[in-house]
């Protein structure tokens, strides 16, 4: 809503709020359910009168703004339990667009995947195009509980940790592959040596055992992954843990085990 000069301590000049800045345009209110009830009342007054009063002002400011609000909650249920104002709900419910979850949108997952591939190709300076057929099958069958944000996070994780020019089965974390059956065999994602030869051929890397002891080789690889994730996350533990698909506690444990200090990664 903005404020006038002198409206409170530190208000050395007047400042326009986002509503006034959006005059003649559109203001998008994301996660509208999280808005405080007192602020909901102020928003309702604005919608009813098409005007508002900046903090410290005695005059109403008229605006012409299109409001678009979004939420991942069922607002009518929130109204019934008193978490969202009923009058504001019906005031906003002029044109409602119900966007299905990603798991119910068919091939949209590949449209979005390709979009994120282009975004991160530009950001990280290397090109990744598409995915192998088995990955397409997984993407179609997976439930995507985190919706589009989960897909975006997965694609960025692959850019950070992998180096191939397309998304491969071995790039996908276990939480995605463990409950999805690919191909004719239910054991397509099994780590057992009895798994289908075609799948094993895609996901196995040939290593000459004479080059490095197994434990040392594994530790070196893990150390590289953790350091890269920390750098890409500006050394924020929460961000690095998301990139690596680990909990914050697990990441700390791995850092101690690998001898990685947060300030010296």
Structure explained in plain terms:
- With 265 residues, the protein is mostly helical.
- Helices cover 45% and strands 5% of the residues.
- The protein contains 12 helices and 4 strands.
- The chain has helices at 18-21, 37-49, 75-80, 86-92, 108-124, 133-141, 147-161, 174-177, 197-203, 214-232, 237-244, 248-258, and strands spanning 26-29, 51-52, 61-62, 66-69.
- The strands form 2 sheets. A two-stranded parallel ribbon has the order 1-4.
- Strand 2 and strand 3 (61-62) form a beta hairpin.
- It is extended, with a radius of gyration of 25 Å.
- 14% of the residues are buried.
- Mean pLDDT is 84; it is low at 184-211.
Assign a percent range to the helix content: 40-55%
Strand-pairing-aware structural class: mainly alpha
The helix tally amounts to 12
Report the C-alpha radius of gyration, rounded: 25 Å
Instruction: Give the neighbour order of strands across the main sheet.
Output: 1-4
Largest sheet: 2 strands, parallel
Q: Low-confidence parts lasting 5 or more residues at pLDDT below 50?
A: 184-211
Please trace the helix and strand order, writing H or E for each element. Answer: HEHEEEHHHHHHHHHH
Strand content: under 5%
Please state the average pLDDT score: 84
Number of strands: 4
Instruction: Give the overall form.
Output: extended
For the termini, the CA-CA separation is: 43 Å
């Amino acid at each position: 809503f903005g404020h006038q000069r002198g409206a409170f301590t530190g208000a050395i000049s007047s400042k326009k709020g986002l509503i006034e800045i959006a005059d003649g345009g559109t203001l998008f209110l994301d996660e509208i359910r999280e808005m405080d009830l007192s602020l909901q009342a102020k928003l309702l007054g604005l919608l009813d009168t098409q005007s508002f009063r900046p903090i410290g002002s005695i005059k109403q400011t008229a605006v012409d703004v299109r409001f678009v609000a979004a939420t991942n909650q069922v607002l009518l249920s929130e109204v019934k339990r008193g978490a969202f104002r009923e009058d504001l709900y019906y005031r906003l419910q002029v044109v409602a667009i119900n966007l299905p979850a990603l798991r119910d949108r068919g091939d949209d997952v590949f449209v979005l995947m390709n979009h994120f591939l282009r975004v991160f190709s530009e950001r990280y300076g290397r090109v990744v195009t598409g995915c192998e057929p088995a990955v397409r099958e997984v993407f179609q069958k997976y439930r995507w509980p985190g919706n589009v944000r989960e897909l975006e996070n997965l694609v960025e994780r692959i850019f950070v940790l992998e180096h191939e020019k397309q998304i491969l089965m071995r790039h996908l974390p276990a939480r995605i592959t463990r409950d999805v059956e690919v191909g004719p065999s239910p054991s397509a994602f099994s780590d057992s040596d009895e798994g289908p030869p075609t799948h094993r051929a895609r996901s196995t890397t040939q290593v000459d055992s004479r080059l490095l002891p197994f434990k040392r080789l594994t530790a070196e690889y893990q150390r590289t992954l953790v350091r890269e994730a920390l750098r890409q996350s500006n050394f924020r533990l929460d961000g690095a843990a998301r990139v690596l698909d680990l909990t914050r506690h697990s990441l700390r444990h791995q850092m101690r085990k690998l001898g990685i200090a947060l300030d010296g990664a």
